[in-house]
Amino acid sequence: MTVEDCERVQTSWFRAQAEVLGGQSWEDGALTWTDSPEGLNLMFPSELNTAAVRRGVQQALDRGRSSVGVWLNACVDASVLRECGFERGWTIRWMTAPLAAVAAGEGDRDGRIELQTDTLDYDGEYSEYRDLLKLARQEPQVAWYAAAYTQPGSSFRSFAGRAWSYYDGGPHGTAGVFDMEVWPRFRRRGLGTGLLRTVCSAAREAGAWQVMLNATDEGSLLYRTCGFTPIGEGITWWLHLR
């Protein structure tokens, strides 16, 4: 698997989110933009020009978005982004693994983890996140959402974390793991491993045979333990509009 494979899956995931949340994706010459309520993103351009980037920023302003993000291969010259007022963000750390090494076996399921197509776990300022679960209800299914709970089956159970996997049937059988997080007070209980293995199993059953993700510093140790290896890096750039 290559960095380019990771970039393709990441772009496809952003396109899918934009579609289900009422946004859209479009091409402007060599640039691929995705738009959702969370913000406008430029996905892995091979080169940049000032006029095209400024057109994207204007689209974000016209749509009332709060930010513009650029996901960039480390080899691409970012001087245009500096010229347009963007600030360097966090490092993209690509990691990959064969799904056979990560997915849970039949006797290895974690009873604290549930695959779901809808949920009541989000309310208040987080209530809009529930809309994203429309992705898990699409047919044929291309995305799987898992939630982690303490004390499963009990009326005292607590929502402890979540993860997604996504597989669009693209070349090389590559799925992605996204938005994986265990809430801080529930960490170090094996829930992260359970979430990862559960969503990877779902993608493998759909036909994927390898998986990619973008790791944080904190998460990379867990992913290495579960069979992932680093294959390269990229960088994000951000322009905050309000």
Tell me what you see in this structure.
- β7 (143-150) and β8 form a beta hairpin.
- The protein is globular and about 55 Å long.
- It contains six helices and eleven strands.
- The longest helix is centred in the first third of the chain and has 18 residues, at 3-20.
- Helix content is 26%, strand content 34%.
- The model has no long low-confidence stretch (mean pLDDT 93).
- It has two domains: 3-95 and 235-240, Aminopeptidase, CATH 3.40.630; 96-231, 3-Layer(aba) Sandwich (Aminopeptidase).
Keywords for this entry:
Aminopeptidase, eleven-stranded mixed β-sheet, 2 domains, 242 residues, alpha+beta
Summarize the structure.
The protein is α+β, with helices and mostly antiparallel strands and 242 residues long. 26% of the residues lie in helices and 34% in strands.
Binned strand content:
25-35%
**Percent range for helical residues?**
25-40%
H/E series, N to C? HEEEHEHEHEEEEHEHE
Q: Care to count the β-strands?
A: 11
Radius of gyration from the alpha-carbon trace, in angstroms: 18 Å
Across the major sheet, the strand order is 1-2-3-4-11-5-10-9-8-7-6
Q: Report the CATH architecture of the largest domain.
A: 3-Layer(aba) Sandwich
* Individual helix count: 6
Structural domain tally: 2
Oligomeric composition of the shown chains: single chain
Instruction: Tell the overall outline.
Output: globular
Distance between the termini: 38 Å
Structural class: alpha+beta
Low-confidence stretches: none
Determine the CATH superfamily of the largest domain: Gcn5-related N-acetyltransferase (GNAT)
**Overall CATH class of the largest domain:** Alpha Beta
What composes the largest sheet?
A: 11 strands, mixed
CATH-derived topology of the largest domain: Aminopeptidase
Mean pLDDT: 93
